[in-house]
Amino acid sequence: MTYDFFYKLFGSQIIAAIIQSLLPLFIFILPFALFAVWLERKVSAHMQDRLGPMRVGWHGWLQTVADILKLIQKEDIVATASDKPLFNIAPVLVFVGTYAAFAAIPFSSAFIGSNLDLGVFFIVAVSGFVVAGILMAGWASNNKYSLLGSMRSVAQIISYEIPTMMVIITIVMITGTLNLNTLSEMQTGHFWNWMIFGGPVFGVSKFLMIPFMIVSFGIIYISTLAEVNRTPFDIPEAESELVSGYHTEYSGMKFAMFFLAEYANMFAVSAIVVALFFGGYQSPFGYVGHLFGLQWLVPIEQLLWFAAKGLFFVFVQMWLRWTLPRLRVDQLMTVCWKYLIPLAFVDLIIIGLITLI
Amino acid sequence: MREYFKNIWAAIFTVSVGMKITFKHLFVPAVTIQYPDVKPKLPERERNRLYVNMDDCIGCDQCARACPVSAITIDTVKALPTEDLKTSQGRKKALWVTNFSIDFSKCCFCQLCVFPCPTVCIYMTDVYEFSEYKRENLLYNFSTLTTEEIKQKKTNYNLFEAEKAKEKAAKAAVAPVPAKAAPKEN
To answer: Which of B22, B29, B34 is opposite residue A322, by nearest beta carbon?
Structure first.
């Protein structure tokens, strides 16, 4: 819909496509990253009975803007012993992997970067770039802490992709589509049509499914948390052990790119969880636009609902970060291989049986 | 098998307990004091920068002698009998205090100078923000007299002394010294 608008405006498919692809970056990812960093600092501060940034703007809301300005001005240090081409490509690759995931995320019925039929699959596949980028960063830094961090990160991300995929398969089994837009459209109506409440089809199977859907949601939330390297699964960055993991040697804008990618990733995984389980961009109660007959208001409302749901899960990620201690490497693997994967398998089988009814 | 499900339950239970605690703390008022805007209430007997009320100072030098780090320097000139110097309590002052300087780069804020003061003119204030870029700026001079006044007081006293000596000499010339009129003191 936005693509058509730009196509009519400029009369060129290429310009329209470029604008369409840059839109989420400039109107969503950058402001979101700035806001999320500020929110993270505020949430952490208030959970520890502090105030956090207070001096730049109202309650320090411009603090992250000031930080970014500082990072842009900083010297770009490249260590002598590092592998320079890899060192320079790594942050870009990490960011590209994160940014590409936003292409298939439906922000509202009017705006989806690319309405792919393999939406979820595309996101999972493209997140693989992040693993390569992180390993590159760790290796090219020529620093033992960076390498350890990136090795841990790779082991962790690859392990936790399995339960994530299992849960996605569960959802796909019920809905029969990988298209995130169709998935969101299916869950339209009221909140009881959301996947977490058994999906849109009313019947016995819906009520049988609810407990297993909640378990699936728990599994995918925990494993996506591990995929974006957040506490309690932040052993790749483990400040107290590894300085700051794979981005120890990075400075200035390259560090900012890792940082941006991390926060964008937080929203990306929250968006996937929202699209799969919580109705995507659908409002839980109906729309003000429909109520007053203002059809143009509906996509905007949908965007707001989507952002609100995504932000809520980002907030929960922060909440968990400032509550839980870090897991040991063996505990991390235990959680994944001994608990999440068997549970995901059992869940898959049971939901498969229920859908057969 | 029981152990396995027990572990899962323990994980869910302990995480939710922790999350409940942190969520409660979100709404606990912060202990942070926004320092330059909001200042903490100081205790009653706080020890900060000293202040000297020069109207009351009699130049007795007791504070300078009490100071363990010799941060206080006092110079005095005797006042003439014609000059009527008084403290705010009406106590007579015999000295002009020409210099009363405290070097706060030496001061250790022990408050030992405050107690011996007979007129309670040196005391602690609540000012604690007085950092300086240059060390000389920490040398505070409390004397209220200007340089000219100090010079004048000195010359006045010297003149008075000289006059007195002259008078004495004149007296001695008129009447010879009475032989051992008064027994020597001490």
So the answer is: B22
